[in-house]
Amino acid sequence: MSRDTIVDSLLSILPADRLQNSASALAAFQSDGLTAFAVQPRAIVVPRSAEEVVQTVQWCHRQGVPFVARGSGTSLSGGSLPHADGIVIALNRLNRVLEVDLPNRRAVVEPGVINSVLTSMVAHAGLYYAPDPSSQQVCTIGGNVAFNSGGAHCLKYGMTSNHVLAMKMLLADGELVDVGLGGGECIGPDLLGLMVGSEGLLGIALEITVKLMPRPEKFHTVLAGYDTLQQAGAAVATIIGSGLLPAAIEIMDRLSMQAATAAVGARYPENVEAVLIVELDGSTESVDTERCLLDELLSKSGASEVIVAADAQERATIWKGRKSVFSAVGHLSPDFIVQDGVVPRSQLGFALQRIEAMSREAGIAVANVFHAGDGNLHPLIMFDGRKPGELQNAERLAEKIVQLCIELGGSITGEHGVGMEKRQFLPGMFSEDSLDCMRRTRIACDPKEIANRGKMFPDAEAPALGMYGLHPLEKQGVASRM
């Protein structure tokens, strides 16, 4: 269908102010956080109610028009990249907290609710929503559900999947189904687990019931400086091996620290190549006991300096620095690629060593910041897209890092998803039988394959174009091949 035909047809079911198809609107929605891919949709639908989303999806099913559900567009894998023949359903206006059940510590939210807003709403009751991606000030809970987002504190508290109790799902044919059970465990197939992390290929979550956690009584947050990145990685293995379970263990290298200092004025130990951020939380008694063990472990790990957050403000500054790194790297490089591979903790030191060697061999700077506790690497590969060949060189280095994660028995993604970015690596992790099972599951929920078409599967419509596709100046050529 042509753009004008799509718009005219949608106007028969939706008010005119729900549709956007101006050049500026289409440009604003042409990519997500992975800007190396850019495709303009035929139109953007901005529904104001769940019923309007249902009507739009039912129309897409009847017409065979692909759709992409999108929140804030913070995905870093091209997961909310539009389809050239389809529409974007922007869910930001579905941002109501429908219910807060304080006695049972749960809330029901629409998909456009901002992650941090939910915590702000229940803070007065001493509760919070635990998943805390770096983008939590802007990312939506619906997007977190689609990609099973984690965050700095996922080591102790788990991923989004550990905090979603139930959902009202809209399948690609317009059918509404309830999955999960808000009050407890379900019997039978884990359909809720299937939907969380399905990257929009199985439908749209219109209502999400989540757990609320009691805010810990006490925090103990430290920065430990190390002479090498490998020392910091080894310290992680030592801490976990001791039986201690911190709320978070993060590593930042020198480049990451420089970026955070430039962006938000964060302070770090001087003359170190890496810092370890370790946070304990819980009751005052448990934190005091665990602190003694942590002090001993850090002393034996070779830390050159340990800085302890003296109060809540210093703790907040430490986390502001850590969570600013992705955007702060813009102070050091005009462009960068964020990777998201996972390695076993036992291989963390070796993986860091190999990434450093790869960076030197390629002549490309790489800033390392990651969730060290679960081995989720986030190397930021720096380049200048205005210079011919630099994107392609950065792509090749990114591919080598992903392949390294597979070879070490890890994963191609920890929380950013497969999306467009890592489709060609899926066969390296899964057998053909497993991939076939995934495809059949997708088709069972979406026979026409209109929900987020072209994502995740390596043979989905367009072939994978290297890691990220063509040079940014050639993006419009990509659109014709999606």
List the helices and strands and how they pair.
Blueprint: H1 3-10, E1 19-20, H2 23-28, E2 43-45, H3 50-63, E3 67-70, E4 87-90, E5 97-101, E6 106-109, H4 115-122, E7 127-128, H5 141-147, H6 154-157, E8 164-170, E9 176-180, H7 191-195, E10 204-211, E11 213-214, E12 218-226, H8 229-241, E13 248-253, H9 254-264, E14 274-282, H10 284-300, E15 305-308, H11 312-323, H12 325-328, E16 335-338, H13 348-362, E17 366-371, E18 379-383, H14 390-407, H15 426-429, H16 432-445, H17 475-479
Describe the structure.
- The protein is of the alpha+beta class and 482 residues long.
- It has four domains: 3-92, Uridine Diphospho-n-acetylenolpyruvylglucosamine Reductase, domain 2 (2-Layer Sandwich); 97-214, Uridine Diphospho-n-acetylenolpyruvylglucosamine Reductase, domain 3, CATH 3.30.465.10; 218-328, Alpha-Beta Plaits (2-Layer Sandwich), CATH 3.30.70.2190; 333-445, Alpha-Beta Plaits, CATH 3.30.70.2740.
- The protein contains 17 helices and 18 strands.
- Helix 8 (229-241) runs antiparallel to helix 13, helix 9 (254-264) packs across helix 11 and helix 13 (348-362) packs antiparallel against helix 14.
- The longest helix is centred in the last third of the chain and has 18 residues, at 390-407.
- It is globular, with a radius of gyration of 22 Å.
